[in-house]
Amino acid sequence: MPTADLQKLLFSRRRLKKPAVIIAMLILILLGYEKFPMLAEPSVGVASVIDGDTLEIKGQRFRLFGIDAPESQQLCKKDDKEYRCGKEAAFALADMIGQQPVTCEKKDVDPYHRIVAICFAGQIEINRWMVANGHALAYRHYSDRYIPDEMSAKAAKIGIWIGSFEKPWDYRHKRK
């Protein structure tokens, strides 16, 4: 039985006979929870900021889902002067998190073996905060979840929206 069908069967409202539920749960365990993000336990711990959209908790890297921050070496312009907007995004993220524990809820795993997640510092959703404060863009290629936050930051001319910049995905593409 394909795993998607197994998930539907397990989480549907239909009543299953007890042996079927037990067998299905054993299959899930044997296949590994990482294939089923909704079953994975959230990761919690003190986070280190790698860059504006990547954290590390207990040695595991987490890529913030649905957002893209300027690269560490990326330059933007404000008042006709260049500044390191990528570094500024990372510093803003580090300042916002401080030393409080971060909770990350897994959505996927990227090709670099980072867990793609929605993360929280207390009650604040970090992904949304980064976009809403102009430190990252909504990564439309993967999600439309943060587009309203990006539009608000752009309208308020905050963060990178105060000047001019190259979209992070375009910046990376040119450097390949």
Helical stretch count? 6
Structural class: alpha+beta
- The amount of helix comes to 25-40%
- The parts where pLDDT drops under 50 for at least 5 residues are none
Per CATH, the architecture of the largest domain is Beta Barrel
Instruction: Using the coordinates above, name the CATH class of the largest domain.
Output: Mainly Beta
Number of domains: 2
CATH fold name of the largest domain: OB fold (Dihydrolipoamide Acetyltransferase, E2P)
Distance between the termini: 41 Å
Order of helices and strands: HHEEEEEEEHEEEHEHH
Largest sheet report:
7 strands, mixed
Gross morphology is: elongated
**Strand fraction:** 25-35%
Radius of gyration: 19 Å
Mean pLDDT: 87
Quaternary structure of the protein: single chain
SSE inventory with pairings:
Blueprint: H1 3-11, H2 18-31, E1 43-45, E2 47-51, E3 54-57, E4 60-64, E5 67-68, E6 76-78, E7 81-83, H3 85-97, E8 102-109, E9 115-121, E10 124-125, H4 126-132, E11 137-138, H5 147-156, H6 168-175
Parallel strand pairs: 4-9
Antiparallel strand pairs: 1-8, 2-3, 3-4, 5-11, 6-7, 8-9, 9-10
